[in-house]
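Following up on my earlier thread - several people asked me to post the actual chain instead of describing it. Fair enough. Here it is, all 577 residues.
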Amino acid sequence: MPFLDAAFWNQPIDVLLYELLTWFGWIPLAITVVWGLILVWKNHRQNLFTKTLTHVLLAVDVPAATEQTPKAVESLFASLASVYSNLIWKETWIIGKLQPTFSFEIVSTEGYVQFYIRTQAKYRDAVEAGIYAHYPDAEISEVEDYTNGFPLRFPNETHEMWGAELNLKEDQIFPIRTYADFEDKVTKEYKDPLGLVLEQLAKMRPGEHFWAQVLCQVTNNKWKDEGIAYIDKVYGVEPPRKESGWMTGMRTVLAIPDAVLAKTLGINMSGLLLGEPAAPKEQDQWKAFKLTETQREQTKAVLQKIGKPGMLTKLRSVYIARKEAYNKGARVAFVKGLYHPYAHLNLNAIGFSPLTVPKDDYFWQKWSYAAKQNSLMRGYVMRDITIGGLPKVFNVEELATLWHFPAIGVKAPLIKKAEARRGEPPTGLPVGSEAEDIVAQGAARAAAAVHAPAASAAAPPPVPEPAFPAPSVGEAELPHPSLPGAAAPPPAAPPAPLSAAPRTADVPPSGRGDRGALRGVEEKEETERGLDATDMGPPSDVVLPGPPPGFPAAPEAVEDADGDGAREGEPPMNLPV
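Reply from S.P.:
Thanks for posting it. Predicted structure:
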């Protein structure tokens, strides 16, 4: 090898660099190619693993009037962030397993607004429990994907599309404005910025559709180390410098011979070969008192953000419409202002990801216009967080601010809401089978057949039909009987005694009459014949039983002394009941 010869290093610098590039220049290129092939293999295995997963799309009908704030939805995001699992090497590189992804969407279909959640089927119970915990009157149902009826390739003959990916403009450790910043200091009311978004979504005309997606993937808590390092730097706390593992190993190997040479010859061999360890910098202990108000606000906000769980997040907005209804100019302005209320000029804001926005301002941008349309549409429909720009971390408070159910103060029209309250049946409600109902109905018919002769013997005589036809709708009223030429009214049927009322045989005697009615068994209302609301007691032919043994006898009734028409000790005859 010529580089071991001393004459090799005495060559001119350009010749020396050329020789080194010839001998060793292929190494970084080979490393790059190998690492690229490894990533391609990983993406291939992840795509195969994703195809084995079962996803469901849940439509959420929010309660018509709820006093819950986005704090309730924050607990839902916090519970979903806990499904993170530490993947081993085999799961990552061989199986292709990846962390679960959730999609929270707000969709306007020609002005009709609906909330959706897309999740893996095994996490459906966790999602529904998180919603019902704070919104017990909400209605959740599994629906088909609303994107199925739209084309995926552009340009096409029927539809036109525009959209964008949105992301944080500054470092991910700085938060945006959250729902806690939208509380009125005077009235203590929450001024929900989502109300403006819903109002604009309701402005979509026939043929127009707008989709807003908040795509979240669970991650670990290592992202907060960046925030801790920033706070330490602002306050002048320098972290201890650590040497690499290779330097630490070399110092360990040279520790014994270095000690021998230091005793005998006074030579520090490790210092000559590896250099002295870097001394820690002198810290400014008064730096914390020199912070500006902006730095204080930033460090406080960063500390609050890293104190809550976070998820890798990507925001997408898609506007798609039929060509005759396509209105790009108005909807682009809407998308630009969609997330602008959450901007904090001293901290962070949400803006367009430049590499993903279809533009046609210049001729070279028109060449990639269709490619960006197709990439954005494919990423939205597949709910793929790897397509497009790199995702950044939003904590659960920020996510609840961007996607939550409207509060009672939001009066945006055409929002799909629950129309009625849902309740659970009583815990002690008996539940029977169809066979039990058939047996009960048979027993009821048998009992009715046994009592049928007695009932027919005591049945009252039939009521004679009236001598004149009953009036129909639209006919003139019959003349009064007192007028000349008017027919006399038919005689009224004589009242029958209470004991002669027939028993309704169609109603089973057991407590299952309600289920029988549901299965088509018509229940007949039992009525007492011969009684009306003016009766003050039982019929004259019914003898009531006396008081039980040992019950004190009633005092003797006194004749009418005050002339009110009743004996003393009895209620007046005209007492209302």
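DSSP finds 18 helices and nine strands in the chain. That should answer part of your original question.
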